[in-house]
Amino acid sequence: MKGTVAMEDHKILAQKEGNYGHRTVKKPPRIADQWGSAFSEHFEATVPIVTDATWQSLVLKADGPVLVEFWAPWCGPCRMIHPVIGELSKEYDGKLKCFKLNTDDSPSIATQYGIRSIPTIMIFINGEKKDAVIGAVPKTTLTASIEKFL
After folding, report:
1. The pLDDT value given to residue 41
2. Which of 91, 112, 131, 138 has its CA 20 to 30 A from that of 85?
3. Is 101 exposed, middle or buried, given 0-12, 13-18 or 19+ CB atoms closer than 10 A?
């Protein structure tokens, strides 16, 4: 029985290190993981988080238009659009409130609004959904959507 446990440990170690039968190769860190944290840090600093607890007060009862990005940390296209949402937040400061909602942390809100793909960017006015843009789209597409409601 001890031999079986040792063999299982060996298999787990081989998977982590990338054992290809005849040699063991250390796997390098993924570039996406390295850049992903940089994008997340930039995005976190510029676009505030909205959660189940703050949804009502920050989005539904807000004065003026509100842009919400529905996203998840594992989503590649979400990471691509994070800097764009950050730029829009700065450009429309005082005219448009921007928030992000992690769909993994707040699945009930994502379900309530029928989020099936991320990133999804929604614009709300007086608590009512006015527009939705799905996918990592160019900044001009988001700007055109925003301008309709300002």
Report:
1. 47
2. 112
3. buried
CATH homologous superfamily, domain 31-147? Glutaredoxin (3.40.30.10)
Which residues does the annotation mark as catalytic?
75, 78
With a CB cutoff of 8 Å and minimum separation 6, the contacts of 24 are 14, 17, 18
DSSP-derived 3-state class of residue 3? helix
Cα–Cα distance, 42 to 37 (Å, whole number): 9
Token pair, residue 32, equals 């996406």
Residue 129: closest CA among 141, 144, 117, 112: 112
Instruction: Grade residue 107 by pLDDT with cuts at 50, 70 and 90.
Output: very high
Burial of residue 9, with CB atoms counted within 10 A of its CB: 0-12 exposed, 13-18 middle, 19 or more buried: exposed
* Length of the chain, in residues: 150
CA distance 62 to 66: 7
Type of residue at 25: V
Answer yes or no: is pLDDT of 25 > 70: no
Question: Which residue type sits at 100?
Answer: K
Sign for the CA dihedral angle at 14, 18, 23, 29 comes to negative
